Amino acid sequence: xxxxxxxxxxxxxxxxxxxxxxxxxxxxxxxxxxxxxxxxxxxxxxxxxxxxxxxxxxxxxxxxxxxxxxxxxxxxxxxxxxxxxxxxxxxxxxxxxxxxxxxxxxxxxxxxxxxxxxxxxxxxxxxxxxxxxxxxxxxxxxxxxxxxxxxxxxxxxxxxxxxxxxxxxxxxxxxxxxxxxxxxxxxxxxxxxxxxxxxxxxxxxxxxxxxxxxxxxxxxxxxxxxxxxxxxxxxxxxxxxxxxxxxxxxxxxxxxxxxxxxxxxxxxxxxxxxxxxxxxxxxxxxxxxxxxxxxxxxxxxxxxxxxxxxxxxxxxxxxxxxxxxxxxxxxxxxxxxxxxxxxxxx
Length: 346
Ligand SMILES: NC(=O)N[C@@H](CC(=O)O)C(=O)O
Ligand SMILES: [Zn+2]
Ligand SMILES: [Zn+2]
Hints:
Blueprint: E1 2-3, E2 7-11, E3 14-18, H1 23-36, E4 39-42, H2 53-65, E5 74-80, H3 89-95, E6 100-103, H4 123-132, E7 135-138, H5 152-167, E8 173-175, H6 181-189, E9 194-198, H7 200-204, H8 228-238, E10 245-247, H9 256-259, H10 274-284, H11 291-303, E11 311-320, E12 325-327, E13 330-332, E14 340-345
């Protein structure tokens, strides 16, 4: 990393948690990520979900066809784990270049209806993944309606993570988009097979952001933003120098008419300005010297993939994020749209 007074140059980063959707909507958002990141872990929660290796291979082709000419971008594919994922699909997935499977507890988040109802049902498949070296990516929230929505991540640690780690000790697990001090502590204290991704919104905002001056749908994602004490624990984890924490935007585009609706879909769109948002969070902690490892090294090392070559440069330069951008034949409103950002990717 090098910093002149007004620029920050780092090795090309990767996004280890991304939603691209499909068809025209996907074609609208791929260029934003391809501009910011060399690679991205592409989430499989399409309708219908990407459950088989052959579907993932076709989805990758559609994504690659949407990458602007002259830009190098590599989508890293995942499968959607279900109660019925066949054990022998794991070998086919590995051969097709799939790097991970995603665990959505059924009903926990956007397009998770086909998710896992009981993790014990997937153990044979998880054993095959452990053997083949595929990672398990986890949306870590219980779905028990008796549990308060703000407590669902912490309860997930006790009910699912701890038993899973005990039963599948050498399966590499990424606790995705963590939002609580409990999850940050759990991952920091876990062994080398456990890591976590952090989103820009959870590093920058607490739950007040959802309610400031009215209900703000573009700040609503899952797991939902938490109290300030949790945000502080997350930014401390991200800037601690621990290699277990890395960048995963969870950029999750939803058409604006579905966000600004009586029932608002969960997800924040950040791909347009992800590095800028993270740089702001790291700068506020006086930790820009730790940004490169978080954005460009820790994730690749955990996944066992080579680090990127080449660099990107951010400048300390104020600019205004567009309020809305096209999204297929709809519109998409970025988090912080219409407001100013202090860093700009050159
Ligand atoms: N994070 C979100 O709020 N939404 C994601 C799903 C997910 O990552 O849980 C989406 O696909 O929209
Ligand atoms: Zn999720
Ligand atoms: Zn996500």
